[in-house]
Specification:
With 238 residues, this protein is α/β, with parallel strands linked by helices. The chain has 9 helices and 8 strands. It has one domain.
Length: 238
């Protein structure tokens, strides 16, 4: 019900840019340019955790990009999912060569904790992944979303945890749903999320998918996010 009300209210209430607050537009041209005006680039955190797949990001997590992501994720500005999905689609395209196999692109979202989904009224990464998949299909790529990962144990709030603590907190927390395992063999897998900070979530997602695919012969994964810290771009250039 909460998600439905947010969808409807976004159509009838006055809107402001999700990036800068400018009135009468959900996302102004300047903020849209910050989000997906440049080509996606490879990123990596410092320190880079063991098991992190090659990750591409559409934009740096700052200023307007940060405001748009938080607006969608925490404040229920669901109308921003389309713009975020377009940005993620660019990162998926850049990550596709790193995903082993043939066939369509399979976008596997990193799931939010059930408590977070209940509190927010939606799963941000999945919503953005669906928008990215639609954008990829619109521009000629075969793509679909496979929401096959789920939490098998509770995890602590990641806020305030160090990179090492986040890895420990998430280790072994995800698994592939039994009914979705065989679907992972049907194409090139790209893990997707809205934001990468330390990379701990993507490491755990890669582990869970890799474990599910062991009997299929494995293969490399790609990973794509809307945004990453600016330092993650710089560290890769060094």
């Amino acid at each position: 019900m909460r998600g439905w009300w947010r969808e409807i209210s976004g159509l009838v209430l006055p809107v402001a840019c999700g990036g800068c607050g400018r009135s009468r537009t959900a996302l102004c041209e300047e903020c849209a340019g910050a989000l997906h005006g440049a080509a996606a680039r490879r990123v990596r955190p410092d320190p880079e955790p063991v098991g992190l797949p090659v990750v591409h990001a559409a934009a740096g997590y700052e200023d307007a990009v940060r405001a748009v992501l938080l607006g969608h994720k925490e404040r229920g500005a669901l109308g921003l999912a389309g713009a975020l999905g377009r940005a993620l689609a660019g990162a998926v395209r850049a990550s596709a060569p790193y995903a082993a196999g043939t066939g369509p692109l399979l976008l596997v979202p990193v799931p939010s904790a059930r408590s977070a989904v209940r509190a927010r009224g939606h799963d941000p990464a999945r919503r953005i992944a669906l928008a990215a998949s639609a954008e990829l299909r619109r521009t000629g790529s075969q793509a679909r979303v496979l929401s096959v990962l789920r939490q098998r144990r509770a995890v602590a709030d990641q806020a305030g945890l160090s990179a090492r603590q986040r890895l420990a907190n998430l280790s072994g927390a995800l698994e592939a749903a039994a009914g979705g395992v065989r679907l992972l063999a049907g194409g090139r897998i790209v893990l997707v999320d809205d934001l990468m900070t330390t990379g701990a979530s993507l490491v755990e997602a890669a582990r869970a998918v890799g474990e599910a695919r062991e009997f299929m012969g494995g293969g490399e994964l790609g990973a794509a996010v809307v945004a990453a810290p600016v330092s993650a771009f710089r560290s890769f250039q060094k």
